[in-house]
Amino acid sequence: MSTSVSLPAPGAVAELLKPITWFPPMWAFSCGVVASGVAPEGKWWLISAGVVLAGPLVCATSQAVNDWFDRHVDAINEPQRPIPSGRIPGQWGLYIAVMWTALSLMFATLLGPWGFCAAAAGLLLAWAYSAPPLRLKRNGWWGNAACGISYEGLAWVTGAAVMAGGSMPAWQSLLLAGLYSVGAHGIMTLNDFKAIEGDRRMGIDSLPVLLGVDGAGRAACLTMAAPQGVVVALLAAWDRPWHALAVGVLLGIQLLLMARFLGDPRGRATWYSALGVNFFVVGMLVSAFGIQTLARGAA
């Protein structure tokens, strides 16, 4: 009598790793590369490796970890997902999360000490966000902060540091990375509107649960908009008027969209994520170009 081991289908594994979520850290890493002011010639392999590490490896790991430890919540909110639907059978969700963590750390050694340490920090945040005993996502303030730091700030700083040969990035670059991390906190809140019932039943205090739908909508808009306002002021103070104007225009478009979003935060969270966030990320790249010469001067 033979026994067969039920393996997950490749399509289900790909769905678990959520390629659509890889864009933010890949983009932030690229912004850090631009902000470094270092010419890319001769470093394309390094840039490519960093993009792969940020997205298909570290970010994908965070998605697998989150889905495994959220499988009971997803059974309520989104039962069609790979784990609650049974398309990722047994303990395979956990196995994939562990294997992708190890693969990410091994790959990170190609990027030197900065790349490895950044990957390790990002992976620690991923596990701390989802896994007991910390499970930072139980509180929307802490959980979204961990995501914002990992997806935006850490990826940005890594890109800048790797390009600079492991040197500390310019303080202007570090400051912008921090501000866009705060902005990403609000973007993370947008994702929580679709899971209110399951979060409430499972004791997860996301911001829509803690503040209510309208309060969380206002908090998301404030945390997205305020840091960009500071970026505009900084670029102007650094004698980058055209970059400041461009980021200001992009922020103005977001404010118009936010006014519509706040009319129905729960119903329009996905709409704003698909439309308004684009102007946020374009502003990141514009500000990165704005500080290139400042970074070169600091080096």
Write structural notes for this entry.
The protein is mainly α and 299 residues long. The protein has a single domain (10-298), classed as Farnesyl Diphosphate Synthase. 75% of the residues lie in helices and 0% in strands. The model has no long low-confidence stretch (mean pLDDT 92).
In short:
It is built from 13 helices and no strands. It is an all-alpha fold.
Count of separate structural domains? 1
Largest sheet: none
What is the N-to-C order of secondary-structure elements (H for helix, E for strand)? HHHHHHHHHHHHH
Strand content: under 5%
What is the CATH first-level class name? Answer: Mainly Alpha
Mean pLDDT: 92
CA-atom Rg in angstroms: 20 Å
Approximate helicity band? over 70%
What global shape is seen? globular
What would you call the structural class?
A: mainly alpha
Low-pLDDT regions: none
From the 3D coordinates, which CATH architecture would you assign?
A: Orthogonal Bundle
Head-to-tail CA distance between termini? 68 Å
CATH topology: Farnesyl Diphosphate Synthase
Topology:
Elements lengths: L9 H8 L5 H13 L8 H26 L1 H7 L14 H17 L3 H19 L9 H24 L7 H20 L5 H6 L5 H31 L3 H21 L3 H26 L1 H7 L1
Helix pairs in contact: 2-3, 2-7, 2-12, 3-5, 3-6, 3-7, 5-6, 6-7, 7-8, 8-10, 8-12, 10-11, 10-12, 11-12
Features:
299 residues; mainly alpha; Farnesyl Diphosphate Synthase; 13 helices; globular
